[in-house]
Amino acid sequence: MGLTSRRTAPPRASKQHDDGVGRAPTVRDVHVQLRDASATRLMHTRRMRALQLKALGRMLVEGEQELLDALAADLGKPAVEAHLTEIDLVKHEVDFALLHLSEWMEAHHAKIPMLLQPASAKTEPQPKGAILIIGAWNYPVQVLLGPLVGALAAGNVAALKPSELAPATSAAIARLVPRYLDRRAVQVLEGGADVSAELLGLEWDHICFTGSQRVGRIVAEAAAKHLTPVTLELGGKCPAVVLDGNLHAAGRRIAHGKILNAGQTCTAPDYVLAVGQGMEKLPEVIHRAFVRFFGRDASASRDYGRIVNRKAFDRLVGFIEDAEIDRSVRVIGGGYDAETLYIEPTILVGVDPEAAVMQEEIFGPILPILTVASLDEAMRFINARPSPLAAYLFSERPRPHSVFEDQVRAGAIAFNVCNMHAAVSTLPFGGVGASGMGNYHGRYGFDTFSQLRPVFSKTALVDTLKIAYPPYRKGKTRVVRSVNLGSAGRQDVDVKPGDKPGM
Ligand code: NAD
């Protein structure tokens, strides 16, 4: 297409690349270009998929500093965090996909019922086509480029819509992507809800959205118009139940899980349910961990992030102010500075379950701790609320593990650790119910963006199906039923790789 990477000023925000004849392509132009590329099967071959994945990997290595600077500008994200949770995480996904690409692309032979023999059958993953990926601001590299790995591995083309609330990262991605990836295969469209809405009005073959439940509903509604499948990676209130075990290690792990990215993490423990007696020390243990991480004044630490914008900051400060006027709540921390969008890691002890802070995802460095009498009560508390993206239990005993696994409904369950499951490429990552639908990461991303297509083949040289055609006389019915399609499992015949199709 000869697009160059010049970024243009509004009215179209800074979302397009010049098309080489002086006009910035519109959202519609980009959609047509991607559709054309998909129709010509641009990305179908293993070679092309691998080339684009390798290019993405190179982009993450060579563009590392540009991305680190952007993440620091948007979120005050410390470099180590940016590496671990964004750049390296996606790079690892790229390497993992390259390592397994051939295996994932393989067709699998399927067994065939006796009545339909001789024949051959297989399933083969097919690219879905043109994918729309809409990202959130909190992990603006990971949630945009992570799904792209799965989309490219599965042989698709994609439009990327980064979040306008992380503008430096959005701009960095819009600069880098056309420098490394084939512009016919991947396009970045910057902008806000207006650009999202325009994109959602067009027909895609799959939409992967990461963000809030409110916008998730808008996305699902728009997708329904075209019967487009959606993956919704949403948020929610992830609980951490502390039951027994090493209280100090539990406190440190909860503190770390919470405070990553200044609490703006979808899988962060949103609140703690401390079970029974003996938990009085937990708030101090968690507080001590915060102090150990960032010193007495976290605002002076280079390792502590900032709140994304004034609106989010005001909402979070509102929770602290509410707690400060409620005499039954003990506030540990609670400092803030509007100018630098800094909020001190803060613990709220003895919060009323009906308080505002317990009604919505906190998404900031504020950790309510509530006390419950038993594990049963903790699980009832969790299950009475919308399903979270993850639920954590701190206990070293196997019995509570199995009860928790059995009874708690959540996108993921983790024992004695928070967030880490999201870094494991062999696990699916996604929510359930209010926290989302579908999943990705590793093989699961490949599967999400593929259609698992069955192919069935049977020769017509000899018509062995004659036996199944009407009229259904008695003798024929008996023969057909004796080979019994219904119990195909028992009579399946495995067709070995290499058997001639259609025989
Ligand atoms: P958001 O829903 O406000 O925005 C997400 C994207 O939607 C942005 O690109 C935005 O431009 C677009 N958008 C906003 N309004 C829109 C509209 N009316 N129509 C169409 N598109 C619109 O979410 P956010 O504030 O960026 O992200 C925070 C949320 O994301 C939290 O709830 C968090 O838990 C969740 N999250 C989930 C995951 C996950 O993997 N499950 C990861 C990160 C964040």
UniProtKB/TrEMBL annotation:
Q: Where is the active site?
A: E233, C266
**From which residue to which does the signal peptide run?**
none
Sorted keywords for this record are:
NAD, Oxidoreductase
Please list the GO terms describing molecular function.
aldehyde dehydrogenase (NAD+) activity
Top-level taxon of the source organism = Bacteria
Q: Mind telling me which residue stretches traverse the membrane in this protein?
A: none
* Composition skew (Basic and acidic residues), residue ranges: 15-26
Give the family per the record.
Answer: Belongs to the aldehyde dehydrogenase family.
Question: Which Gene3D superfamilies does the record cross-reference, listed alphabetically?
Answer: Aldehyde Dehydrogenase, Chain A, domain 1, Aldehyde Dehydrogenase, Chain A, domain 2
Query: Could you tell me which CDD domains the record lists for this protein?
Result: ALDH_F3-13-14_CALDH-like
- Biological process (GO), any one: aldehyde metabolic process
Which species expresses this protein natively? Zhihengliuella halotolerans
The region called Disordered is annotated at 1-26
- What does UniProt give as GO cellular component? cytoplasm
Q: Tell me one Pfam family matched here.
A: Aldedh
InterPro entries, A to Z? Ald_DH/histidinol_DH, Ald_DH_C, Ald_DH_N, Aldehyde_DH_dom, Aldehyde_DH_NAD(P)
Residue ranges annotated for the Aldehyde dehydrogenase domain, each copy included: 47-453
Q: What name is this protein filed under?
A: Aldehyde dehydrogenase
